[in-house]
Every structure is written in C-alpha cells, then in structure tokens.
Design brief:
The chain is mostly helical. It is built from 16 helices and three strands. Strand 1 and strand 2 form a beta hairpin. The radius of gyration is 22 Å and the shape is globular. The N and C termini lie far apart (64 Å). 46% of the residues are buried.
C-alpha cells in the first residue's frame, strides 16, 4: 500500500507539471489533468482514513466542476478558457487539502464555492446592462470607507486582526469585498482626470482606506490596497515618479507601523530569527519551515504529513502543508499556475478598449498576484508574515468568494470587450 501511495504521488506531480506546461501551450488538455489529479488525491485520502465522506465529497466536486465548465461557457460566451481552468484547478487543490486537514472545513468551503460560482453567473449580465460603473468613483470610495469604519467599530479580533464581523456563528471580513470597490474607485477616478489636484484628493481618500485597515491591525490588507493603488496610478498617468514617491512613503509607513504595533515587531523578529523565539512568536514560522523541509521535492505523500503541528494551517499557512505532503515540485507548479493567471489578466487588460475596464482588470490582477506573494512569502520566511490567505486555496469564505468574484468580473469585461470588437469587425 505504501508503494502504491508513493507511486500515486509521483503521478500527481507529473500530471500537474503537464497541466502547468499546458498553461503556456495547449489549454484543451488541462481539464483532463484536473480530473486525474482530483481522482488520485481522493484515492489517497480515502485509503489513508477509510472515511466514506471523502467519496461523497469527490462525487460532489465532480458534479460541481463539470457543471461549472458547462454553464460558464454558456453565460460567458468567448471566455478565457485558461482563467476558468486555473480557477477550478486552484479551488480543487484547496478543497482536497482541507479534506486532509479537517473535512468539515472542506464541506463549508465547497458550499461557499457553489454559492460564489452561482452568483457570478449574473456578472456578464450586470456588466452589459449597466454601463455606468465608471461614473460612480466617489460612491465606491464612500461605500468602501463606510464598510471599513463600521468594521473598525463593531468587529471582533481574530488571529490578531480586528476585521471580522461575527453574526451568530458566521464570521466574515468586509475588507475582502472592499478590495473590489477600492479597485473600482481608483480605476474610475484616475481614468477621468489626471491633473495634480485631482490625483492628490484621490490619493488622500485611497490612503484613508489603508489607515482604517491599519487601525484594524490588518496590515496585510493595507499593503495590498497600497500597492494596488500605486500600480493603477502609475499605469493611468504614465508618471513613474509616483512609483518612487509611493515606494518611499511605503517604507516610511512600515517604520511607523513597526514602532506602533507590538505584533508587527513580533513578526519581524520571527522573520529575522524565528528559532530564538520558537516558544512564542517564532513557533508558527519554524513549524512551517520544518514542514517545507520535510516535504523535499516530491513530498511525504497526501495524508502522511503532520500539518496540524502548524498553527492556523488551514488558512494562512496552507502552502506549508502542500509543500510537506505534495512536495516542492508540486508547489512550484502551483506558483506557475498563479503566474499564468496574472499574465492572462494583464493580457486581457491590454486588449480591453474601455479605459475603466482596462484599469479595473489590471487592479484586480494586482490584488490577486500580490496577495499570493504575501501569502507564500510569509510562509517561506521570504518576508515577514502578514496573515493573508492564499487565493482560492486557503480556508475562508470571504476570501474565496471575493476571489471568485474578481475572476468573474475580469471574465465578464473580457467577454463584453470581445463581443464589441467582433460586432465592430462585422460592421
């Protein structure tokens, strides 16, 4: 049985490597790879636990993903096949890893995925029927800041950040959805006027968003907002001086945050030398490093590691569990999938004629890839941990719902632009 498990692990890595190669070459074969990896993963999980719920979840996912491929091709005519395939692949990896950690997490995550995929079928209709999104820039900013202010007043503190609204047994993060409003706000206002006074006012409001997140101790979120705005600003104005000024401002803000917040100092200390404080602030990152090292190139095998040793492994540190059980090669291929998503989003942004849609797609792409960088960088000790989730994979309803919406918005804009280009070509 051990030999079969090891062989299955190698097959998973090989198939995922092929899938990654197809990201840049031949996308039609990707869906076959998705089903093969999902099947092997569930065989390994079932034989490790003999829990029949694994089989039920496998069948449920088989139905959900097959319907997603079929229905999305109807509602999003001419969509980016690569983006859809990658979204399903990453969701699938996240859910079978959650099955490995705690099956209840996987069930909840799959339910939220179904809800998100269903709701997002309306996105192309909304984008097509309401062509006024670029006129509501200040409204996006006001709504976003209001949500963040309400969160600051009434939220509960979980894992060190006061950005969770808890109603009954349901906890969610409004800041995840404010990301989308924030990109709309920046794209709408920076594409209409480009004089210095207007940019200064918009920048002040953008900074106010980040300040509210800092007050909530959500420094990872504040950093995502800051970088996203900076790239939209530079792209919209073409003035690279803003990049230099923004970088200097970001460094200054980091120094201030270090002196103001004790948990920031703890995370920096854990990043510099986690073993010196392994019993306190360095425990999580040291366990993550042990797990990554134990996995090596091809992993210990799905179900054969000890990811439960890592605190909050199901959300912030799930990348370490993937490295431990599936190996560094699998993790590297997964990162290539994230990069291919970002490349595709940038490509879509460049092809879109509508200026607001163009910068919205770019901004949402920056949110996605920079959050990925923060999540992976924190787990691998490349940068201090910021406590952000790995898009599509980490456990968290707000996170995965927001990312599905982001991808659906980009797909909707791409489809609308493509249909308009085809219409103009015929006329």
């Amino acid at each position: 049985m051990n030999t079969i498990a090891v062989l299955c692990g190698y097959i998973m890595v090989i198939v995922f490597a092929l899938y990654t190669f197809f990201c840049f070459y031949k996308q039609k074969a990707q869906r076959t790879c998705i089903y093969i990896i999902m099947t092997i993963a569930h065989i390994l999980l079932y034989t490790a636990s003999w829990d029949f719920n694994i089989i039920i979840l496998y069948v449920a996912q088989l139905v959900v993903y097959s319907l997603t491929f079929f229905v999305y091709n109807i509602f999003y005519k001419g969509l980016s096949r690569l983006m859809l395939n990658n979204m399903v692949m990453l969701i699938m990896i996240g859910i079978f890893m959650l099955e490995r950690i705690e099956i209840e997490y996987a069930v909840k995550q799959l339910c939220i995925v179904v809800l998100g995929l269903g709701v997002c079928l309306l996105v192309p209709f909304v984008i097509k029927k309401f062509p006024y999104f670029d006129r509501l820039g200040w409204q996006y900013g006001i709504v976003g800041m209001t949500l963040l202010a309400v969160t600051l007043l009434f939220a509960e503190e979980i894992h060190g950040a006061k950005n969770w609204i808890v109603i009954s047994n349901i906890a969610f993060q409004p800041s995840e959805f404010v990301k989308i409003l924030y990109v709309f706000f920046a794209a709408a206002l920076l594409t209409r006027k480009k004089n210095f006074k207007h940019i200064a006012i918009v920048t002040a409001v953008a900074a106010a968003h980040a300040v509210l997140l800092i007050l909530e101790k959500d420094l990872g979120g504040a950093l995502i907002f800051f970088i996203t705005y900076l790239f939209i600003l530079v792209s919209a104005t073409g003035n690279y001086l803003y990049l230099l000024l923004g970088g200097a401002g970001g460094v200054g803000a980091s120094v201030v945050a270090y002196h103001l917040f004790s948990h920031v100092r703890t995370r920096v200390a854990a990043w510099k030398d986690p073993f010196s404080i392994i019993d306190t602030g360095g425990y999580q990152i040291t366990q993550s490093m042990f797990a990554i090292a134990a996995g090596g190139l091809f992993g210990l095998g799905l179900g054969r590691g000890i990811p439960e040793k890592i605190p909050v492994v199901e959300s912030d540190f799930i990348f370490a569990a993937i490295c431990e059980e599936l190996g560094g090669v699998f993790a590297l291929c997964m990162l290539m999938v994230y990069i291919s998503c970002f490349i595709m989003i940038v490509n879509i942004s460049m092809k879109i004629d509508n200026v607001f849609f163009k910068f919205t797609a770019l901004g949402l792409g920056i949110v996605f890839i920079f959050q990925t960088f923060l999540a992976v960088g924190g787990v691998t000790k490349f940068i201090p941990s910021t406590g952000v989730t790995l898009p599509f994979i980490s456990y968290g309803g707000s996170s995965i719902l927001c990312t599905i919406i982001i991808f659906s918005i980009i797909q909707g804009m791409y489809v609308l632009n493509k249909s308009e280009v085809d219409k103009n070509a015929k006329t």
